[in-house]
Amino acid sequence: MLRYNLVEPRRLVQEEVPMPVPGPGEALIAVKAVGICGSDIHAYYGEHPYISCPIVPGHEFAGVVTQVGDGVDEAWLGKRVTALPSLVCGKCHNCRTDRFNICENLKVIGCQSDGALAEFVKAPADKLFLLPEDMSWEMAALVEPLAVAVHAVRIAGDIVGQRVVVYGGGTIGLLVMQVAKAYGAKTVILSEPDAFRRELGLKLGADHVIDPSSVPPHKWLRDKFGSEGIDLAFECVGIEATVQQGILSNRKGTTIVIVGVFSKPVMVDMGLVQDRELRLLGTLMYTKTDFTEAMDLLKEGRIQGLPLITHRLDFAKSQTAFDIIEQEKGKCVKLMINATK
Ligand SMILES: [Zn+2]
Ligand SMILES: [Zn+2]
What we know:
Elements lengths: L1 E7 L2 E6 L9 E11 L1 H7 L15 E9 L11 E4 L2 E2 L5 H4 L10 E2 L11 E5 L3 E3 L6 H5 L1 H13 L7 E5 L3 H12 L4 E5 L3 H9 L4 E3 L6 H9 L6 E4 L4 H10 L5 E4 L11 H6 L3 E4 L5 H12 L9 E6 L6 H8 L5 E5 L3
Parallel strand pairs: 10-11, 10-13, 11-12, 13-14, 14-15, 16-17
Antiparallel strand pairs: 1-2, 3-4, 3-8, 3-17, 4-5, 5-9, 6-7
Helix pairs in contact: 4-5, 4-10, 7-8
The protein binds zinc ion (2 copies).
C-alpha cells in the first residue's frame, strides 16, 4: 500500500510498504478521508513537543473496515467508520477512571504510531464509531477535531449565559466557538489576526471579532464590557500572547482553558493569575463521551463543519499538502485529503 512518511521535518516521502496486518483487537481501515491538523503542521516543522520523526501523520480520518484481527466482531467488516485515535494502556489511574485521554502511556495514531495518511490504517476495534448513513467521509473526519472542542467546553463546566472569548480562529477555535454557542454561551467573541478567519468566525456565529494585530484584545474587551465582562476564555493557539491576553481580560476568579499546543515554554504574568484567582485549565483530546457527543452534534446539524474545509486534495497529491498550507496561510483552515477514486 502507499503511505506518506514524514521521515524528517519538512520531508514527507511517498512509500510503498506491505499491507499492515490487524493484530488481536484491531481493525484495518481503508482510508477515505483524512484531515490535516495543526498538530500535523507542528510535526512537519519539527516543532511539536511530543511528535518525532519518522511518523506517518493523520489522526482525523474515516474509512471502511476491510479486515479484523483476533477477537474482533466480524460484523465490522465493510462498515463505514471513524476511529478515536487514542492508544491507551487501560491500566493507569486515568484509564481506570474514564479519562483515557490523559493515560500515562498515551500514544496517538498519526502522532506516535502509524497514521492515516496512507491507503490503510490500523485502529483498535473498541475505538471504532459507526457512521450514520448520510454522513460524508469528510464530515466523519471532522468528528475528531470537534471532539477536542467538545471536551474543552465540557471541562469548563456550565457555560449557559456566559460571555466567552476564543483566542485563535483555526479549526479548533472555530469549533470551540460553535460548541460554546450550542451549549448556551450568551456571547462569543473571537480574537484572530487573519481577516479571512475572522470573516469565517462571523459566518459561524461569533457575536464579535477582534483583530489582535490592530488593538490589544484586553483593551478592546475592557472598553466594551468592563473589567467584569468576560466569564471564560479558550486559548486555541498555543503561544505566549494569547495566554497573557486571557489573563488580562478575564474577570477575577474565572477560567482560561488552554487548548493550544505549545511548541516551547512561555512567560506569562503568574502574579495576576494568583492575585485574580484565575484558573489556567489544560485540556487534551477527548473521552469516548466527548467523541460520541461530537458525532451527535454533527449529525443533528448543530455544528457547521463543511465551511471549515477550505482546501481539498487527492491522496495521490498528498506531498503538496504542507506547501499549500504554508502558501495559503490563514486562508487554509482545514485541508482535507480524499482517497483517490
Ligand atoms: Zn487533530
Ligand atoms: Zn492508561
